[in-house]
Structure formats: C-alpha cells, structure tokens
C-alpha cells in the first residue's frame, strides 16, 4: 500500500496548517484535513485508519502531538476536509487529538478530529500512517490513542507511513 498527500514546495499546504485562512480554523487552529491518496490497498481490506502525529513536538511540549485519529474509513482515497465537514456521507469515527490535553487549558481548539500543524519554533516533520484493516473497529467518537492502537491489534493487513514537513514561518 502507498499513500500520498498534496504538498506545496515540499511542505504541507498552507490551507491544512498554521497559515490557513481564518474560515478554515476552529478556535484559531487549522481544521481543514488534507486529502490522502491511497494506491495498492489490499483487496481484503475492510476499512482504513489514520494516525497523524508530530514527534518534533517533544522538545516543545514534552510529548508527541496527536493531530488526527480516524477509523472505519472506506478503502478509498480520503477526501479533503472530511474531518470537520458536515457535508460528508462517509461513516467513520474520530478520536481525540492533543488539544484535549489538560495542560493547555480551555479553548485550545477542536479536541476531536483533525487539528493541523502549527510548528512554533522551526520546521517540524509530521508522520502520517494509514492502516488497512480486516475489520471495522469498535470505537466511539472521542476515543483515545491507546484504545485506537489496542483495537487495531491483530487486524492490520498493511500500512504505509510518510513524513512530511510543515513550515514554522
């Protein structure tokens, strides 16, 4: 399986990151999810799951930042802006991102679904993994990363990971 997202001069495009227009943000955080193009998905895959994170956040905040958890997506390309769109017919479930952290205080942005890159100090490299699964996961809206990882155990047929940068300035 292979995955790809659009880039602009090698970086995550502005509309999916900290330089998004105000109407593409929730509480000041980028909320428009990028499309994911999937090729060579296994024929026996039933669903896809997405995990988007920032390991470069560790020196800044002390932990790997979770930007997006999504499960039970159909085995097809993932359209842009599905995370917070009310106009999608796709039936999938999203987990908590790191905006829910008690260390951030209130009004820190959307706590479920996609929250875009906002590197504060330098270019960060974001890691996107898409999993092809042999089942639909039993997860409820607002699940945690540990539940996501446990529910996938024994059900991952294939996966693909890419690293893509987002600029700070």
TrEMBL record:
- Record Gene3D superfamilies: PEBP-like
Name listed for the protein in its UniProt record: YbhB/YbcL family Raf kinase inhibitor-like protein
């Amino acid at each position: 399986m292979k995955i790809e997202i659009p880039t602009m001069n090698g970086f995550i495009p502005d509309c999916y990151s900290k330089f998004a227009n105000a109407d593409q943000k929730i509480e000041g955080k980028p909320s428009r999810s990028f499309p994911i193009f999937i090729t060579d998905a296994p024929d026996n895959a039933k669903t896809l799951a997405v995990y988007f994170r920032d390991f470069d956040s560790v020196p800044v905040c002390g932990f790997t930042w979770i930007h997006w958890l999504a499960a039970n997506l159909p085995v097809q390309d993932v359209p842009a802006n599905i995370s917070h769109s009310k106009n999608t017919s796709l039936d999938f479930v999203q987990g908590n991102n790191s905006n829910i952290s008690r260390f951030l205080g209130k009004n820190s942005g959307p706590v479920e679904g996609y929250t875009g890159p906002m590197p504060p100090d330098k270019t960060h490299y974001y890691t996107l993994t898409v999993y092809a699964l042999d089942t639909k996961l039993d997860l409820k809206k607002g699940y945690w990363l540990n539940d996501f990882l446990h529910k996938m155990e024994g059900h991952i047929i294939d996966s693909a990971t890419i690293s893509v940068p987002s600029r700070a300035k």
